[in-house]
């Protein structure tokens, strides 16, 4: 179950796997299962890895991978336990534990971030970059500072945005609530049900 905003911790949380490893400079480094081959420069070239590495010492950002293993088109590899004194892999967190935090950091991996839907539906506020992909969530119509709090592509402003949340508690809560309304309208509004019926009818006609 979710936690009321007033009882959530002033923490921005990320838990996930190292996906999005489609960088050519990883190719010669991951053909053997040797974590010593991965450098901080390699890590910073991949968005999720950059987040974990950059905020490894942050008081307000709890960003960790749930496994050291990662996979790419070139093969498989393993992250080192530490990079630049940042702990790369942390304990898994249940959904309830993540929802005890005021901020959920949602980053795309190989494709659309799978956690965006439940993140918006929650009572926490979502940090995300401007969407590059679309899905049934219609990400391209989400408005920054209305449905989510935007973070820069280089991720260097995440702690700054977390401090903004702490200093603007009410405004951040309103953004979280509007994100929730977006999802509820998509899933439960009467018009959404009609749209779904039309889609299913059209699909049935095409395959009959």
TrEMBL record:
Pfam families, A to Z: Glyco_transf_90
Task: List the molecular function annotations (GO) for this entry.
Answer: transferase activity
Residue ranges of the TM segments: none
**Superkingdom of the source species:** Eukaryota
Glycosyl transferase CAP10 domain residues are 1-196
Going by the UniProt record, its keywords in alphabetical order are: Transferase
Instruction: Keyword check for Ribonucleoprotein, yes or no.
Output: no
Report the family membership. Answer: Belongs to the glycosyltransferase 90 family.
What is the protein's name according to its record? Glycosyl transferase CAP10 domain-containing protein
Source organism per entry reads Attheya septentrionalis
Species lineage: Eukaryota, Sar, Stramenopiles, Ochrophyta, Bacillariophyta
């Amino acid at each position: 179950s979710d936690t009321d905003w007033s009882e959530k911790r002033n923490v921005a949380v990320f838990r996930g796997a190292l996906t999005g490893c489609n960088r050519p400079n990883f190719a010669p480094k991951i053909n053997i299962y040797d974590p010593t081959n991965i450098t901080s420069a390699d890590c910073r070239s991949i968005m999720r890895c950059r987040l974990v590495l950059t905020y490894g010492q942050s008081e307000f950002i709890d960003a960790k991978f749930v496994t050291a293993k990662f996979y790419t088109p070139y093969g498989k590899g393993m992250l080192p336990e530490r990079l630049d004194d940042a702990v790369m892999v942390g304990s898994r967190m249940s959904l309830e534990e993540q929802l005890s935090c005021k901020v959920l950091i949602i980053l795309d991996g190989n494709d659309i971030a799978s956690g965006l839907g439940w993140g918006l539906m929650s009572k926490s506020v979502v940090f995300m970059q401007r969407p590059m992909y679309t899905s049934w969530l219609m990400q391209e119509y989400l408005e920054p500072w209305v449905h989510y709090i935007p973070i820069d592509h280089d991720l260097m402003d995440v702690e700054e945005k977390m401090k903004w949340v702490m200093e603007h508690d009410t405004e951040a809560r309103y953004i979280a609530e509007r994100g929730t309304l977006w999802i509820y309208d998509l899933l439960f509004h009467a018009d959404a049900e009609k749209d779904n019926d039309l889609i299913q009818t059209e699909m049935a006609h095409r395959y009959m």
